[in-house]
């Protein structure tokens, strides 16, 4: 009786312990496998740009949601687990059959493992023992209770070994056959079906004969079972087995590495178009090979859809594997001097501010701004120049003067808002050089700016991730000013044979701009059309001067090589005129500004509709003269019987040197008998100017060079008397220049004309 009572107590305890033990040993992880998969970087159509090994140096694709192809499913189930759809993780009939066969033969000839049991083993690899087999059975039952048959089969195929470091059916399909599983033939799916059974002994690279034998046995069995017809069977066994490993595609490698580092997830879907990416990569590589003898070893190009802001090609160097020339550097994110590339945006902002329109005349003369005197690239000046011509010719002097009056801080704020993130100094630290390359910029930022220009002044970030959503847009330029600048940039003369682009029906217009950094270190070219925004950089990643290199001659040809290969919408190959964004105004035919009053020739011009009113002409003035126009008069000295009202174009005195005989009006002196105010000072210093800091170098002979002093006078016939540090130097007539050898230090220069007008400046001289 006591024994019976003890048994009644022990049996539940034993059963409970056994149940708990079974629960523990049969426990399955959730999820079944770790998330250590290869990272896949895909283009906009799902094509592979790059595939990365996982942390264990394996190729193993994550689940992308696609179903297992029917052919592969049939082949695998027929080979591995014919009763897969009927059993619940363990096929008892197969277990007893295997047990009988193994006892009869005296060795293991059959394993009876179902696909679910194999999945349990793959989930946590174990030594093949009876104990572990029982654990796998228990785990298989629990897997079947939790997951559907489709999920189990897919999990098995995604994690099955296919030889070496190839894991999963999709990886194997691409590595052995260079095609997706959906496109495999019956012979190929049969190969994938038999490989996981013993990948070391039937490896296609090490034992192709044994693999073919196993594959053909499966194909014969499929034929006998009626899964395939005779013709399919005969064609399948005639196919050779895989005899090589195909590499994964490698496109946009710099971008792929960047995204793999920065973006979470195993599948990264981008906006890149692989076809365009590969085409542009080949063009850029060939271009650098052609120009290597000129000292140009590196280049980068970013191609963006102007309408959407989606990046379509990201070519960050001439060759990712060109280690001798630093090919692994990402030239699209690299920041270099912006050169002249920011000029179009200042012109657009100045239009919106009412400072200029395209026809407005700007000063093109050397002006000193606290010791900083910008010169044009060719060291020549025109005196005055139309705003659109100044932009087309990329003149430095007019644009610096424009920035001076517009405001450095306002322009700096615009660049920041528009997406230029590389501004790490204050506006004051950059100064006026901000517009001439004083700031650094990347191709990414430059593309963002010009794409905003092509988007009618609406700026937003570029998109390279397909599912990132549209970025918020900011209207920073008016549609009218953006359009007028695009129209101006379209008129730039293209290099080489592209000069005749309008003669070819297949050619398309594009607004484009180039830039060359100081010392010819960087060549830029960026173009915008309704379809495409293309930004190009050429130079050397290692830095240094490249003699003879310029954006026009070195970067622009690459831009047009790419642009000409891209598809374009013929029905919309140029930007539509923003009808509500422009207005017609009347301006002076001579200066392109509004006039207050007085007789003048007016013309109609376009201005941004949202712009402030255009400023009045700073050069056209109304004068009261005597009838003979020999002297200026005023209400204090005029004779009403001898009075004439005229409007004349009068530029500052320093302009006349560069105009020659063009557009010069010699303002007559004021009536000498007038009791009123004297005339405005007609003297202007050209060089040096107030506060100039001058460095004098040595000449070829080793002696210090002389300083050239130059002054302009409003009257063509004039005599000037020169004084330096209160010592008389001499006089000049009509052409006012002096050359002097001066000692270092501060100097006071004063000039007096024959009418008593005088002007003085201070400047500092150093010898180098």
Going across the biggest sheet, name each strand in turn. Answer: 7-6-16-15-14
Q: Which parts are unreliable, with pLDDT below 50 for 5 consecutive residues or more? A: none
Beta-strand content estimate: 15-25%
CATH topology descriptor of the largest domain: Beta-lactamase
How many structural domains are formed by the residues?
4
CATH hierarchy: architecture of the largest domain: 3-Layer(aba) Sandwich
* Overall pLDDT level: 89
List the total number of helices.
21
The helix/strand class is alpha+beta
The CATH H-level homologous superfamily of the largest domain: DD-peptidase/beta-lactamase superfamily
Number of strands: 28
CATH class of the largest domain: Alpha Beta
Distance between the termini: 119 Å
Large-scale geometry: elongated
Rounded to an integer in angstroms, the radius of gyration calculated over CA atoms is 40 Å
């Amino acid at each position: 009786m006591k024994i019976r009572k003890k048994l009644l107590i022990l049996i539940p305890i034993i059963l409970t312990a056994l149940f708990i033990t079974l629960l523990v040993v049969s426990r399955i992880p959730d999820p079944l496998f770790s998330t250590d998969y290869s990272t896949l970087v895909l283009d906009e159509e799902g094509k592979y740009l790059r595939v990365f090994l996982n942390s264990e140096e394996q190729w193993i694709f994550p689940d992308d949601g696609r179903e297992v192809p029917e052919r592969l499913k049939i082949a695998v189930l027929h080979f591995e687990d014919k009763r897969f759809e009927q059993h619940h993780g363990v096929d008892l009939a197969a277990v007893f059959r295997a047990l009988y066969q193994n006892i009869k033969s005296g060795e293991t000839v059959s394993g009876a493992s179902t696909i679910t049991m194999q999945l349990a083993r793959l989930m946590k690899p174990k030594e093949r023992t009876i104990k572990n087999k029982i654990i796998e059975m228990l785990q298989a039952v629990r897997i079947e209770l939790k997951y559907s048959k489709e999920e189990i089969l897919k999990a098995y195929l995604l994690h099955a070994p296919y030889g070496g470091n190839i894991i999963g059916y999709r990886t194997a399909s691409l590595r052995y056959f260079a095609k997706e599983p959906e496109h495999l033939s019956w012979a190929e799916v049969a190969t994938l079906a038999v490989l996981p059974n013993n990948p070391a002994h039937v490896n296609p690279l090490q034992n192709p004969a044994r693999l073919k034998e196993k594959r053909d046995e499966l194909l014969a069995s499929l034929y006998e079972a009626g899964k395939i017809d005779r013709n399919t069977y005969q064609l399948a066994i005639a196919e050779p087995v895989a005899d090589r490993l195909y590499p994964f595609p490698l496109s946009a490698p710099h971008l792929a590495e960047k995204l793999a580092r920065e973006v979470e997830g195993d599948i990264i879907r981008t906006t890149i178009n692989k076809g365009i990416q590969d085409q542009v990569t080949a063009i850029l590589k060939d271009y650098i090979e052609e120009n290597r003898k000129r000292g140009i070893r590196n280049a980068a190009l970013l191609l963006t859809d102007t309408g959407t802001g989606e990046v379509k090609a990201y070519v960050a160097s001439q060759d990712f594997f060109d280690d001798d020339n630093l090919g692994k550097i990402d030239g699209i994110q690299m920041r270099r001097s912006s050169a002249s590339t920011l000029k179009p945006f200042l012109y657009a902002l100045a239009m919106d501010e009412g400072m200029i329109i395209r026809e407005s005349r700007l000063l093109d003369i050397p002006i000193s701004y606290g010791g900083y005197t910008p010169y044009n690239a060719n060291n020549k000046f025109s005196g005055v120049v139309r705003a659109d011509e100044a932009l087309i010719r990329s003149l430095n002097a007019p644009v610096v003067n424009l920035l001076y009056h517009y405001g450095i801080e306002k322009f700096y704020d615009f660049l920041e808002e528009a997406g230029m993130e590389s501004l790490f100094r204050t506006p004051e630290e950059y100064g006026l050089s901000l517009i001439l390359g004083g700031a650094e910029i990347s191709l990414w930022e430059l593309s963002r700016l010009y794409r905003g220009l092509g988007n009618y002044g609406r700026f937003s970030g570029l998109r390279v991730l397909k599912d990132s959503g549209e970025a918020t847009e900011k209207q920073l330029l008016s549609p009218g000013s953006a359009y007028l600048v695009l129209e101006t940039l379209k008129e730039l003369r293209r290099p080489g044979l592209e000069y005749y682009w309008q003669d070819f029906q297949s050619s398309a217009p594009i607004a484009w701009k180039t830039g060359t950094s100081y010392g010819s270190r960087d060549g830029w070219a960026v173009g915008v059309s309704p379809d495409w925004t293309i930004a190009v950089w050429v130079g050397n990643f290692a830095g240094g001067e490249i003699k003879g290199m310029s954006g026009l001659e070195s970067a622009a040809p690459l831009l047009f090589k790419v642009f000409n290969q891209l598809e374009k919408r013929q029905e919309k190959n140029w930007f539509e005129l923003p009808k509500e964004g422009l207005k017609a105004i009347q301006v002076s035919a001579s200066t392109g500004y509004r006039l207050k009053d007085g007789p003048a020739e007016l013309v109609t011009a376009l201005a941004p509709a949202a712009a402030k009113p255009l400023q009045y002409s700073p050069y056209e003035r109304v004068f009261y003269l005597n009838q003979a126009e020999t002297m200026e008069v005023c209400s204090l000295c005029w004779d009403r019987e001898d009075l004439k009202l005229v409007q004349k174009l009068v530029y500052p005195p320093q302009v006349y040197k560069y105009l020659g005989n063009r557009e010069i009006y010699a303002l007559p002196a004021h009536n000498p008998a007038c009791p009123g105010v004297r005339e405005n000072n007609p003297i202007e210093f050209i060089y040096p100017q107030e506060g100039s800091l001058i460095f004098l170098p040595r000449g070829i002979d080793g002696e210090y060079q002389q300083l050239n002093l130059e002054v302009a006078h409003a009257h063509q016939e004039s005599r000037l008397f020169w004084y330096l540090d209160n010592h008389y130097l001499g006089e000049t007539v009509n052409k006012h220049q002096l050359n002097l050898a001066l000692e270092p230090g501060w100097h006071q220069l004063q000039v007096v004309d024959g009418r008593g007008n005088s002007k003085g400046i201070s400047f500092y001289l150093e010898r180098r």
